[in-house]
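Collaborator request, handled under Task 6.
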Amino acid sequence: MNADQIIAILVDEIIKSVSPDFLIKELNFMNGRRRADLTFGSNGELYSFEIKSRFDNLSKLAEQTSDYIRCFDYSYIVVNKSHLSSARKIANKKLGIILEQNGALKIMRRATKIKRLDKYSVLTLISGKDISQSFKVSSSNVKAFDTHTIKKMISKEHTLAEIKYRIYSKLKENHSSNLQFLLDETGDIVHVDDLLYISRKNATKILNR
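Structure tokens returned to the collaborator:
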């Protein structure tokens, strides 16, 4: 199975087992250096998934997973059986591991909640414009400082709990309608084509048809 096929199965299981506030396919973070294959929010907590199909290699997995645990409450790696042994050795022990085999998913190791996320890194989950709106950054500061500096300022002025709440709220505001559209339009099973509804690239285009 390729990555999108695995994501479709994962999305199907998520919407049938929990009540997510939003689902996002391909969410940029760490100032665009990383992209979470799938993210969802539930009860104020963020969950992320890195997909490694049998067509992928694990050469960047250690670096990727170290960034995931800076931003998300819970993170999982989804791997094919051929990658399972290596993923156990490479991935940070706080990340969960899900095995994909013959179209079925099985949790091999549950993710540990990350209690001390990095405030600056959490801020990278939304755009500079959304940061300015969420934290009511004055227009003079927007003009005077670049986005990196503004994130640093917010990190010093706000607690982690405040930052997490506002970032979660903005992600929900931006993406909850896409999830609802997916739920309204999808049949009994989520297919690869349905992922367009929650794709950061295509959702707006589809919703405005």
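The cover message to the collaborator said: "Confidence is low (pLDDT under 50) at residues 203-209. Residues 160-185 form the longest helix (26 residues). Please let us know whether this matches your experimental observations."
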